[in-house]
Write a structure and sequence with these properties.
Order of helices and strands: HHEEHHEEEHEEHHHEEEHHHHHHH
Oligomer: single chain
CATH topology of the largest domain: Beta-Lactamase
Helix content: 40-55%
Strand content: 15-25%
Distance between the termini: 135 Å
Structural class: alpha+beta
Length: 430
Amino acid sequence: MSIIEFNHFQELSDCGDLAKVSQQSDVLFKILIEQAPIGITILQNRKLLYFNSFAMELFGYQDAREVMDKDLLDFFPQRFHSELQDRHIRRLRGKPVPTTYDTFAVRKDGTEFPVNVVVSNISLNGSPATIQYFKEIHERKRAEDALRESHERFHAIADYSYDWESWIGPDGKAVWTSPSVFRLTGYTLEEYRGIADAPYFLFNENDRERISKIRQAALQGESANNVEVQIYCKDGSRKWVEASYQPIYGSNGANLGFRISVRDIAKRKQVEEALIQLQAELQKRVEEQTRKLTAANDTLRALMNSKEDDQKAMQDKLKVNINDLVIPYLKKLKKSGLNDFQEKCLSELENNLSDVLSPFLTNFLSSHQSLTAQEIQIADLIRRGKRTKEIADILNASANTIATHRNNIRKKLNLRNAKINLRSHLQSLS
């Protein structure tokens, strides 16, 4: 109806021309019904009296004659007929029935689609009738199905999670809690929900201030992981748990509170305490062994010192005996008219005794204990300037044997560089 026609309708009304008003009202009603973006039908005595254009399109019909005098049940799947018929009868009898509901309808080609139906009772020509409004709800249905599936998946995971999970709303109150709270605390889900300050009443008094700060930070969007605390169980016992806090945001970025994941770490704590105890025990054993080793080292050091003292005393006695008993006889021998060979041997004997009496041999022996007795004798002869052939003659050995001993002496003295003179090195040790 145009604006002019509507104004004309008002003028007729103002003039009191009731017949024209009624006629104009019928026209206006038909225009509104036909142009409505929703399927509209009128049913009387189970027969369709009216199908607007949108309903024709919704149900897949082209000609109104195809739907006239049909039963409304023909537009619904067979499985819903009994329920819809019962509602229709109850509605006509004035009994309370839903005025709106979601169901499935059937198009002309047999395909089903979800619809929302609103039903109202009217009087038509003095007889009861009903008017139905149909609205396709594909998107809403998909959204509802997706939400339901998401809800089912959530509970399939969350309700059977081994960890205790809780959703705390922006107001600090628990929105949802997993049934695992019973396994960790001994409180049933119903008991837990009935406690006003859940879950904070469970925490040890010494931890509540710390947990309160973490909770406030979580409400501000901060996270906290692996927070170790003790909780009180229903039976009064304490249990070590590990809590993690993660903020929750809606699709529009709104703060929905935060999530708490609580894990039982009692066994881990037992292992940690056992390890600490074992470490302390091992430390005690190490200290005890260290004490014993220290005592043994002290004893060994005392023995070594005693040995060194005894050795020095023996060396001193040896020197005294050589000076008092041996040297005087050697001097007498030198005056007794010896041949050249005897004089040579006597001279070597004097030199050897001189080495014994000098600090060189003592120091050399103590510093180079790996040398054999013969190697020490050869080293001393080298130090005094004797050549290989001379040493061989003195010791009644071959020159090759003496050369081998020289090489062994160099190795044991760590003289890797061939340029280092063995005699000079030995003299530097005196």
